[in-house]
Amino acid sequence: xxxxxxxxxxxxxxxxxxxxxxxxxxxxxxxxxxxxxxxxxxxxxxxxxxxxxxxxxxxxxxxxxxxxxxxxxxxxxxxxxxxxxxxxxxxxxxxxxxxxxxxxxxxxxxxxxxxxxxxxxxxxxxxxxxxxxxxxxxxxxxxxxxxxxxxxxxxxxxxxxxxxxxxxxxxxxxxxxxxxxxxxxxxxxxxxxxxxxxxxxxxxxxxxxxxxxxxxxxxxxxxxxxxxxxxxxxxxxxxxxxxxxxxxxxxxxxxxxxxxxxxxxxxxxxxxxxxxxxxxxxxxxxxxxxxxxxxxxxxxxxxxxxxxxxxxxxxxxxxxxxxxxxxxxxxxxxxxxxxxxxxxxxxxxxxxxxxxxxxxxxxxxxxxxxxxxxxxxxxxxxxxxxxxxxxxxxxxxxxxxxxxxxxxxxxxxxxxxxxxxxxxxxxxxxxxxxxxxxxxxxxxxxxxxxxxxxxxxxxxxxxxxxxxxxxxxxxxxxxxxxxxxxx
Amino acid sequence: xxxxxxxxxxxxxxxxxxxxxxxxxxxxxxxxxxxxxxxxxxxxxxxxxxxxxxxxxxxxxxxxxxxxxxxxxxxxxxxxxxxxxxxxxxxxxxxxxxxxxxxxxxxxxxxxxxxxxxxxxxxxxxxxxxxxxxxxxxxxxxxxxxxxxxxxxxxxxxxxxxxxxxxxxxxxxxxxxxxxxxxxxxxxxxxxxxxxxxxxxxx
Lengths: 487, 203
Fold this sequence. Notes:
The structure holds two protein chains of two kinds. Chain A is built from 19 helices and two strands. Chain A has helices at 2-24, 30-54, 69-95, 106-123, 130-148, 154-183, 195-198, 205-223, 231-238, 241-270, 272-294, 300-321, 324-354, 366-369, 371-385, 391-405, 409-435, 449-472, 477-484; strands at residues 60-61, 66-67. A two-stranded antiparallel sheet of chain A has the order 1-2. In chain A, strand 1 and strand 2 form a beta hairpin. By secondary structure, chain B is mainly α. Chain B has one domain (3-195). In chain B, 75% of the residues lie in helices and 0% in strands.
């Protein structure tokens, strides 16, 4: 595990060093250093995953770093999406004219904050201590709020402000839960909140339940689970597209992984049925809130934001069902959602150049007026809708089947109905986007279109590969490692 | 833990809920943080405990400076009116605090006074954010919650750890810095630090 430990430390250290580098080097080299740093980080993240997954059933949980299957799934996702976001940021910075900082320092500050945000994100799934994970999640709020409001436009400021205040307050509530948990642990106080120690919680059942609810409600505010999701559609739709991709594909699942670990560690003290039921309620509530919006004619990024709410609900259900099949579905869903959603957000930069009206209106007829762009958006939306052979179709079937298998038939049935309704809403949006009536467009060449089309080809291959992998996942060592956890 | 210190923290917190002027509220939150420093020093047993108390002191002074700087940079012609009148705000905050005290069980090892003080401060912070429109009061609400949690950390069985105390201080400082950037930009864009003006994002 020494090499995995080294890789875990390096994967966080490299983007921090890249951020420090971009802060001091000449302005013309800022973008190149950021891309180079993130390329190295993505490589290290993939290597970390390969090393940990080589023996997925032997997790190592220390006081501060946890090396387990959950981290091995999420770290490469964050690394790869982070690399793509940094690479596509140049297109965003070229097309956007406003920012909260002066034009001289705009690019440098953007990359420094983005790299620090990615570094903190990478640290969250490998944090071996709940208090440390909380600190890191709080740190992601500070950096990402700045990025959400980076354009300085009134709507972006509103979105950034809501995000900052609501998630900080939520995390404050989670910290209260942490305090209660620490009170029930023998000896070490806050420092004793390692995943391993949490399994030895010795307080009463009621104390454990209240602490669990407080931690979960606080984290839900950051994951974007309904009913504490209000910031999510605004922040995702107003942030720069590369940041929206990171928020949806990396930040939400990273915090979700922490909630998952809390459930595994505290579940026995709370009572596994209660612990699971709370997650199922969050999952169903998120689906119920998201689906009506998926039927509305929304602007592209706002539609993707509500789709994030839906998919975080699906993940909560999978963890709540808790069966090996459902957890295998969760693993596939995290990766598939990240690939499809980030592609959708990246497509919004050329989309807004191609049709500026799409900032406030649903896209229509893009498949006819810009086939390359339409294809990228189609791949993203088709996959997110769960259109076969999307891996999200397979993962949703696995999660629902896992729900039935674990005795949650009512919840699985309700979820299936809501997912079917969500599918119809997104399918309508997909048809309208591809073959609807074309509106007047600017003649400007969509900046970054080539990169997005190339990404859509790569993402399509990865999504199909993931579908194939999904079928072989149930019963694998990875799934038994997910069931067993780091503790 | 001694009752007067907890009472002082709670009364100062309730003051933030009801006062009208931002500068007065900043003073109250700073006084609260300094009381916490006193509590931390009185309970310090090791060098690390003293360092954790020092981190709290630095945070208190730094926030006071930053928040007063913000108040001076964003002078309002008249205070932004809250959504709810002061007596109602106080009633809501106290009701919420009592509800929390009733809902959250106290562990046998915990300090009774401190436990109730922590819950009251968290309730007052949430109430401040929910009932005030001035953006600076939103920041103060979060600081109020964090002060409550600092009290929880100090009075825990096993005490706080230096790493966590420094981490929370760093995080909160970062958050406050980012919030101050937003507050200034909102003031510049809308002519007032009024969250009521932030209503354009609706579906």
